[in-house]
């Protein structure tokens, strides 16, 4: 009975609104008609003034129209009052607001982004992302200082609470605050109440990592072999020809069973191929000595910049990024990158290596209720800058296919044009913070961004340049896979601290990490460097032995010549008979061999032959 009564009341409410709208429309038409008649010239009949009528004024003061009143079903208008439809203060009308509300009303679990802004924030119109659609990837974009990092933190916190592990690079150290409960103030509570967020401070489980141990975190390393020639070529800034040659070098190392663990392994291999192994370089084909030399110089310069500490063992097992706590929350893995400005290529390419390694290791899972991991790719423009065609192809393929393995990727950058169109086409969710158009290039980027959005009731060129901090234009993929209406959104506040976690607390967390025992100490096992050093030592000894053999042969020949000369001289001195040496059965050669000098030379020859000659 209660449901029927509610239905009847709803129908009555709808009828009253329709009646009010019709009355308002009628009043508008009547007023328009009255104004039109007032503008017409008087008819001839009007010129006839009745006898005794008062004089007619030459000018008229238009009578004021009745003040219009808003339509209110509970307070019917009095006769003669003009009725105007209920209006909103923002750019969207009632029907458009209803469409937004319906577009984000999902049945399954969702990440709460914030509330619709239409003049003021509307807490009754929440903006959300279906949890099952987060692995369809997304983009968080906006100018510096517009709130991208806090948006990332809001999403990471909710993913963790939903049991989804998160990986993110902490470029500025701000994200570390997710491990510390936030503190409230009047301003924060007023903002969160305005969007319907019941805010409370909360800390989340965090694991800190650092590239090669440079920074606060469990050291993260990768081997040169697993990094591969394509990603390494991107780091070294090689052109297409040099990248192809580097691929052949990797193939040679695999054929010769030469493990490429760190940069000194690869450097030693290139030294070998341009030195003692020149014949091997020719056998590989397609690699010139000059190209190998360029690659060698780039590797040497790269190592001198300190990048060699990243390459090595033990290599991080990327499945360590997919852990959950005992209470079911997802662990947020934060990679500290304190020197990203000096080594942007290494940072961005390492993140791509993580994705590629996950892609190789994880099984196919298809569509699942929630992602197995969400990966936030901050400063994404660094990844795509000066990238080769093969590199972009590898990224596009990874982004397209890793979804079916349960991994979601969010690219975080300043403008959508930083991301290639083939990659941008794979992104289901868009969170666009304020854009600035201070230069012609900025204006062009703004227009290009606007063209990528679905049709909406917004003037997006105007809205995108006037968004406040913590506001964004949002559109996501709904549970059916269709794009939701474009929504001007005031975003939620993080529950973790908006300030970095204090350094002592971070160090304490790292020292108590169970991963430190596995990855804390670098291991330098026998690899290509040691194996090639052994080959060089053998080649050196062989070269020395060959030189000693030749020297012995030359000395023996000289001695023979000397002996022959002495024999001739002796024959000239005693022409009448045999020499005393011949009579005694000896000769100059045998006498020399038996001498101390001869024995010394023989010992040197023997030592050279058997490889025990001192260097």
UniProtKB/TrEMBL annotation:
Residues 120-614 form the Helicase HerA-like C-terminal domain. InterPro entries: HerA_C (IPR033186), P-loop_NTPase (IPR027417), T4SS_component (IPR051162). SUPFAM superfamilies: P-loop containing nucleoside triphosphate hydrolases. Residues 28-92, 547-592 are annotated as: Disordered. It comes from Agrococcus citreus. This is Helicase HerA-like C-terminal domain-containing protein. Residues 547-584 have a biased composition (Basic and acidic residues). It comes from the Bacteria.
